Amino acid sequence: AQISATGRQQSLTRLAEIRRTEMALTTQSAAAQRALNAAEVQSAASARTLSAAKVDLARATTATTAAATANTAAVAANTAAQRTLTAVSRGAAGAMALVGGPLGVATLAATAFFLFRDSSDDVSSSLTDMNAPLETVIADFKELSVESQRAAMIKWGDRYQE
Fold first, then answer.
1. CA distance 87 to 56
2. What was the pLDDT predicted at 33?
């Protein structure tokens, strides 16, 4: 009977030890399951972040491509403008050469001014007789060139103000 009481005591001790081990393993299993659940949640969040980053990358790539295309167009427009400027510069240099350079341009402008002044004096002298009949003055005015008509109008305005 003593062997059986000792065996029984050992069996109960062993059974209690197995239950403690079982409880520890159950606690460890629950902790591992919680860690697994947390890892799955973190993995899903990381997947969403990765998807958002891929969308942002696609947008940035599209914007970069558009900017590169706009830059290419701007460079092409600049090149065309430079070519036009070069052609205009050559044309201006050719025109200056035809009139004798800057001194020739100044001489041409002075000559035009003096010719216009002389022309306006001729108009003034031809229309000085404002006492003539109105039909005669109108007929004389219509015979003048456009520039002479403008000069005559200026002279008449000056006379009217006096």
1. 46
2. 97
